[in-house]
């Protein structure tokens, strides 16, 4: 594989720490990057993604789609300083558990109006 087809990517987490840099082929998909992030997630973080769909990658102000390749996400204008692309990682935990927990908590608390009109 030619050297110019390889891209160095570093993943910046919510607390400013980094995962990487790792070297990827330009044909690697965003989904593959997310799987690597989950497998290499640092121990001891308060927020931990459990699945690929909980991770969003942001590069140059755009949320990257899972089916896009690294080559399609590269900067259209010139080279990046230092040769390493920094992608920001946003973790959005699944909402299904949160909604169910709220329903359970809210159901016993039915508020009954005790107003009296005189």
Automatic annotation (TrEMBL):
PROSITE patterns: UBIQUITIN_2. The keyword Membrane applies. Residues 7-75 form the Ubiquitin-like domain. It holds the Pfam family Rad60-SLD_2. It is a lipid-anchor. Its main location: membrane. InterPro entries: MUB, Ubiquitin-like_dom, Ubiquitin-like_domsf, UBL3-like, UBL3-like_ubiquitin_dom. SUPFAM superfamilies: Ubiquitin-like (SSF54236). The keyword Iron does not apply. Keywords: Cell membrane, Lipoprotein, Membrane, Methylation, Palmitate, Prenylation. It is found in: Cell membrane. One of its GO terms (cellular component) is plasma membrane. May serve as docking site to facilitate the association of other proteins to the plasma membrane. This is Membrane-anchored ubiquitin-fold protein.
């Amino acid at each position: 594989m030619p050297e110019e087809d390889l891209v160095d990517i570093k993943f910046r987490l919510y607390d400013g720490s980094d995962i990487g840099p790792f070297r990827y082929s330009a044909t690697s998909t965003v989904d593959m990057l997310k799987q690597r992030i989950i497998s290499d997630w640092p121990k001891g973080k308060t927020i931990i993604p459990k699945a690929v769909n909980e991770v969003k990658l942001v590069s140059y102000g755009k949320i990257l789609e899972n089916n896009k390749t690294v080559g399609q996400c590269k900067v259209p204008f010139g080279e990046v300083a230092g040769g390493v692309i920094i992608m920001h990682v946003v973790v959005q935990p699944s909402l299904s558990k949160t909604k169910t927990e709220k329903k359970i908590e809210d159901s016993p608390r039915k508020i009954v109006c005790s107003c009296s009109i005189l």
